[in-house]
Every structure is written in C-alpha cells, then in structure tokens.
Amino acid sequence: MSKKKFKLASLVLASALIFPTFASAEEFIEPIEAEKELTFVEAQVHSVNGESFNLEILNDGYVDYYSVTSDVSAANLDAVSEYVDELIKSKTDPFEGDEPILDDEGNVIQGDIINFARNLSNTDRSGKGSLSTSGYSEYAYLYPITSNKMRVNNGTINASFTGSGTANKIFINYNYKFNGTSASISFAPSLTRSSSTVSWKSASFVNTKSASARSLWAQATSRTLLTSTNIRGGAEVYKGSVAYRPDYSSTVGWMNR
C-alpha cells in the first residue's frame, strides 16, 4: 500500500473512533429486558365498580407481579389500579427485613422517630406511573454509640396504559439514594446496589393494561451523618412503535416528614 493510501485509511479509521454513530432521537429502540424469568402463579377474576377484569399473578423468584390483562374502561382504570395496590398491601409486611437494636433484656432500643409517607405519580401521554411508600428517620438512642437510620418501607408501584387496548410491554422501576457520610446500606434481596443507590427494575409485563408490584425496603445507618433520601420511580410503557416514560421523584430530608 502506498504512503498516500495508508494515510487515507488511517484517517478513516481515526474518524470512526472519534465520531461514533448515534441513533436518532425519534428512533424506537426495544429495551433490554431485565434478566428475570417469570413463573405463572395464578389467574383471577375481580370486579370494581361493576366492571369485571382478569388479573394474572406471576413471580420472578422474589417479587409477585400483578398484571391486569383486560382492557378496562378509562373511567375505571385508576380505581382498578388502586384496588390491585390494596391486594398487594394486604400481603406485605411493611417492616420486613428490619432489624431493631435490642438491649440486654431483648427490648427494642429506639431513639426519636419521624415518619414520612410519599404518594408519587406522573403521566407521559398515554403512560401513567405511581409509587406509594413510607418510611422514617430515626435519631439513635445513645448516639454516636448506636447509629442514626433512614429507612424506606415496602410499598406499591404501578404503571398503566391509558389508551385504547392493552400495552405490548410495561416495565416498572424505582430507586432510593441515601445521602450522608459513612453510611451502611442494607436492602431487600431483589434490589441491587451501586454506591449509595439501591434500585429495582421489573421484567416485562406483556399484553397488560396495568402492571403492579410491591416496592421493597432499604435503609441506611450511620454513626456520622445522614442528610436525605431521594426516592425515584418510573415506567416504560410500549404500545406499537411508541414508548411512554412517566417518572417522578421526591426527596425526604433527615428527620423531616
């Protein structure tokens, strides 16, 4: 190869390395599904406000998935989603995984506690998402011998397709970021951790109108400083070649409601 051709080939290669190709913002890209296998548990029929609907329950090995597979009416969709959330709450222990500090006699040692609750929601055109959870800040008894704590309890998360028919796929997700110094973070087994953030994303709910699951607990403890917890949630709702991504967030300050 001549020196001239070699230089030209080198320039082409360099351009490819420096200027990567990106997909157009309008291009539909199928998401990479979470690597979870769902097991069918049971199918049920329920009724809300005189309208019957089919509810399928699946499980990913830890979390139950509640999928409304009927095309319920738009006027009744919120009521159906709330009904399913109540079903989930009836099977959820809000203090699951909590390990209180005990004294020598086995009694709970407890400092000052401030409880909080969050009911978050948002819409993106024909996609709607919501998260309902609670938790608390605990100023440690005998601090700094014992630890301060910020905890998010189990709750419920939901996403729905508000258009005609059912969505092809729905994914739901949430994460908690604990802000502070020298924090020790613990969380439910199904969650994953990256630095000070714990998160969860579902496998796909297929051919569903409304997708629900319980959101799981996580907590941070510190003998130095805790300042806040950021709670975020969202969904990916796919209908045909269109994707809707409602998301929402809230920050809970230390010892604030």
Descriptive report:
- The chain has helices at 3-18, 77-89; strands spanning 39-48, 51-59, 64-68, 112-124, 127-139, 148-152, 155-161, 167-181, 184-187, 192-194, 197-201, 205-208, 210-215, 218-222, 225-239, 242-244, 247-253.
- By secondary structure, it is mainly beta.
- It has one domain.
- The strands form two sheets. Strands 1, 2, 3, 4, 5, 6, 7, 9, 13 and 14 form a ten-stranded antiparallel β-sheet that branches.
- The longest helix has 16 residues, at 3-18.
- It is elongated and about 55 Å long.
- The model is unreliable at 1-34 (pLDDT under 50).
Task: Compile the SSE list and pairings.
Elements: H1 3-18, E1 39-48, E2 51-59, E3 64-68, H2 77-89, E4 112-124, E5 127-139, E6 148-152, E7 155-161, E8 167-181, E9 184-187, E10 192-194, E11 197-201, E12 205-208, E13 210-215, E14 218-222, E15 225-239, E16 242-244, E17 247-253
Antiparallel strand pairs: 1-2, 2-3, 3-13, 4-5, 5-6, 5-7, 6-14, 7-13, 8-11, 8-12, 8-15, 9-14, 10-11, 15-16, 15-17
Would you kindly provide a brief summary of this structure?
The protein has 257 residues and is mainly beta. It has helices at 3-18, 77-89; strands at 39-48, 51-59, 64-68, 112-124, 127-139, 148-152, 155-161, 167-181, 184-187, 192-194, 197-201, 205-208, 210-215, 218-222, 225-239, 242-244, 247-253.
Q: State Rg.
A: 23 Å
Helix content: 10-25%
Low-confidence stretches: 1-34
Order of H and E elements: HEEEHEEEEEEEEEEEEEE
Tell me the number of structural domains.
1
The rounded distance between the terminal residues' Cα atoms is 72 Å
Outline: elongated
The largest pleated sheet is described as: 10 strands, antiparallel
Please state the average pLDDT score.
84
Please count the helical segments. 2
- Which percent range describes the beta-strand content? over 45%
Task: Count the E strands.
Answer: 17
Structural class label: mainly beta
Keywords: Signal
Protein name: DUF5626 domain-containing protein
